[in-house]
Amino acid sequence: MRRRWLGSLLAVSVTATLAPALATSTATAAPAATRSSAAKGALDQYVKQKPQWKRCDATAPAEFECATIKVPLDYRNPGGKRLDLAISRLRSTAPDKRRGVLLSNPGGPGGQGLYMPLGLRETLPESAQQKYDLIGFDPRGVGESSPVSCGLKPEEENWLRPYKEETFDKDVAWARDVANKCREKAGDTLPYITTRNTVRDMDVLRAVLGEKKISYVGYSYGTYLGAVYTQLFPGRADRFVLDSAVDPARAWRGMIQWWAEGAEPAFDRWTEWAAERSETYGLGDTPKKVDRTFWDLVARADEKPIELDGYPNTGDDVRSGMRGAVFTPKYASEGVVELKKAAAGQPVSAKKLAAFIGGDTGATSATGATAAAAAEVPSDNMTASFLAVVCGDNSAAWSRNPESYRRDAIEDKGRYPLYGDFASSIKPCAFWDRSKEPATKVNNKVGSLIVQNEWDSQTPLPSAQALHSDLKGSKMLTVLGGEGHGVYPNGNACTDGTVTGYLLTGKLPAKDVTCEATPASNAEARKNQKRGGVLPGSPLAERAPDRF
Q1: Other C-beta atoms within 10 Å of 176: how many?
Q2: Which of 2-11, 223-232, 389-398 has the lowest average pLDDT?
Q3: How far apart are CA 225 and CA 31, in angstroms?
């Protein structure tokens, strides 16, 4: 089966902020006064860096500048090994109106954000571009920031596998082999490629840029980065927009399982939608009949795989593709119609089958990443950095007993038949090393704006509601009927006006906001469902169905 988803600031300020964040790094940490004193001296070298800004590359706009700074591999030992952090900026278009910097992250984990300011420039209103320098960065271990690799072959990167009794032992062996390869190839680095350390990097970047605070726009996994920043550095967070949100308590096994749990109500919604349009799609005139049409197709593909784009697709492939497609009922309906044609040997529309045909999760972004830069990044970098975070942020969430994954996969396939076994079966995290520090409990009163579509395949609505509950100073904007992963900006006056207004004024809505989706705003969802696809002009650098 194929996979296709800041002037100068006193050094003491960043040291004083980083020290509390390091307090829970280890149970045997030094006394606070000693730790702060030692950390200050070692961190001075990072805070006092002067970025050597230059044009990012020959094809990029001249005003788009890039630089590389250094950050500690291990913040408990800031005098030790260092990593590169690739950063970029587009200066404010009106310096007299400038407020500060707007950092951004496209998601992942493993998504490259260096070129994200170019995408934001295409979509943010001019008023917002006057307000901020737009700052991008590749998170540690990603892209041009000391990229990690496990030396994985393409077939080994397929980490979402359906449960089958006859192949489970092989899947366990694969998971163990991937974890061992990662340990052998980059075992001295991977344990430090974590969300907490990336957040610490963000605060070093803040200090290097000479800013007392940062504003931030983060999508999907980027919402978790933002939430952890507000927890570790509450006094440094200015205006934070968290779009399509991760539930911190479920990072990360539980978030992967959300993909299965969230797909079931979306599937039920689709059967009702398609039944009401039976004359158009011919999938059945009742929800029950539509349901049967789909599962008959799955059974047929299990008996005789359906050839799509030259590749055989089994029933498991059909279920996997439908998991993302079903959040846009029209898209799912068109796809199932085409699958039926393909099963009958008839010509099909590749465009309408995008969710099932697959694509390249490493596709170059429309935000400007060059082929030359991409060639310098290991081919498995996105997967290696993804696993480092998903497995290493909270190893306690991952059982060490392979049989527990078998039991969970069987149970969850029964509860969530579309995708339950994919989400719950064995992963390399079962054999990963123990986390260097505990997972972050997010629970604070820092102001932020959470933005969420009602129908989101990657971070379902309850996930965002959970983050809203954890961030007690937040307000939430929900787009009723909104489809797709990633909301702002989408051309919807209600959503765009609310978010832009917050970025410009810093004033959160007096209460939570509900907007209604429009046909135009939901049209973006259809592009968004393409496996590994890229939204031209979008601030999101990558859109893979097996990432956040």
Answers
A1: 15
A2: 2-11
A3: 28
